């Protein structure tokens, strides 16, 4: 059985949260709104995303090796946390499970209502921009890569590296998958075997981004953070994770050990992926990921 190597991303968010801007800047992006696809055409999307083939009326299959980057608004007045993501989006669970990451971009300031400094700041920015008072854009930082260099780098690492997963990373990924399967609050649409496959794909993608031939524990830890962000609340890293307002850490090398230790402790494993508390003897179930490597 062929396991796909391309990752898919879905953005679910309120109007005005920048989904369209992200889509416009994504490469190889379909301009069609995902929820505008007709119901009887969605079966073809399932096959294109998972098997990366497309069955036609010519008794043949066409290769569809691609990544899907889609966005949609919640149904109704807004995202209801008391309902499943399938109900909120109107997308069936089999389709949702094919997305490796589902990020919620929710405007939390709407829920509180009233006036705030953030509302005033946004309004002033929009008015100044409309009146032409924003002034020239700031000079780019010399350390910031231009778009052309970033595109060339991504294209190179995607085609040049096929990282293998080291044992500590394997055990961390399997421990996280087992933890999610046992959690009562986890959506069933997100805890199928595809979650394990998604974690491996994302870890390999992070290793490529870091210009490495091996997936290390660091890659696995940050993939767990990304997957936790899909649920809007990090039970492992602690506290809420809002994809819309989260900022990049300015000192990632210094904060990584703290993040790593917190996640490993929540999973009950050490830095080598070994269980902290062995119960009843026997081997650890996460020794290998089998065909997912």
Question: Describe it for me?
Answer:
By secondary structure, this protein is mostly helical. It has two domains: 9-109; 147-292, no CATH class. It has eleven helices and seven strands. The protein has helices spanning 19-24, 42-50, 85-89, 93-96, 108-112, 117-130, 147-160, 167-182, 193-209, 217-229, 252-267; strands at residues 9-13, 53-55, 61-63, 69-72, 101-105, 164-165, 214-215. The strands form three sheets. It has a three-stranded parallel sheet. Strand 2 (53-55) and strand 3 (61-63) form a beta hairpin. The protein is globular. The protein starts with 8 loop residues before the first strand and ends in a 26-residue tail after the last helix.
Whole-number mean pLDDT:
76
Query: What form results from the Cα inertia axes?
Result: globular
Main β sheet profile: 3 strands, parallel
| Quantity of strands, as a count | 7
How would you write the strand order of the largest sheet? Answer: 4-1-5
Number of helices: 11
Give the tally of structural domains.
2
Strand content: 5-15%
User: Helicity, in percent?
Assistant: 40-55%
Order of helices and strands: EHHEEEHHEHHHEHHEHH
Radius of gyration: 21 Å
Structural class: mainly alpha
pLDDT < 50 runs, ≥5 residues: 28-33, 280-288
Quaternary structure annotation: single chain
Q: How far apart, in Å, are the first and last alpha carbons?
A: 13 Å
């Amino acid at each position: 059985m062929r396991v796909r190597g391309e990752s898919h991303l879905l953005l679910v968010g309120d109007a005005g949260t920048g989904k369209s801007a992200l889509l416009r800047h994504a490469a190889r992006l379909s301009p069609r709104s995902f929820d505008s696809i007709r119901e009887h055409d969605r079966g073809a999307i399932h096959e294109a995303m998972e098997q990366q083939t497309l069955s036609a009326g010519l008794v043949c299959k066409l290769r569809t090796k691609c990544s899907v980057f889609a966005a949609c608004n919640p149904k109704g007045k807004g995202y209801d946390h008391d309902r499943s993501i399938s109900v909120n989006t109107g997308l069936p669970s089999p389709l949702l499970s094919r997305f490796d990451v589902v990020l919620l971009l929710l405007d939390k300031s709407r829920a509180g209502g009233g006036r705030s400094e953030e509302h005033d700041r946004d309004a002033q920015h929009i008015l100044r921009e409309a009146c032409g008072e924003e002034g020239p854009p700031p000079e780019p930082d010399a350390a910031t890569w231009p778009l052309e260099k970033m595109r060339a780098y991504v294209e190179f690492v995607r085609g040049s590296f096929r990282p293998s997963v080291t044992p500590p990373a394997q055990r961390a990924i399997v421990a996280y998958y087992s933890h999610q399967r046992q959690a009562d609050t986890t959506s069933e649409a997100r805890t199928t075997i595809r979650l394990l496959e998604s974690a491996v794909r994302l870890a390999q993608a992070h290793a490529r981004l870091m210009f490495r031939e091996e997936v290390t524990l660091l890659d696995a830890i940050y993939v767990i953070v990304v997957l936790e962000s899909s649920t809007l609340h990090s039970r492992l890293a602690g506290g809420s994770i809002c994809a819309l307002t989260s900022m990049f850490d300015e000192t990632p090398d210094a904060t990584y050990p703290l993040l790593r230790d917190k996640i490993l402790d929540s999973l009950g494993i050490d830095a080598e992926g070994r269980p902290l508390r062995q119960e009843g003897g026997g081997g650890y179930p996460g020794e290998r990921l089998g065909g997912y490597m």
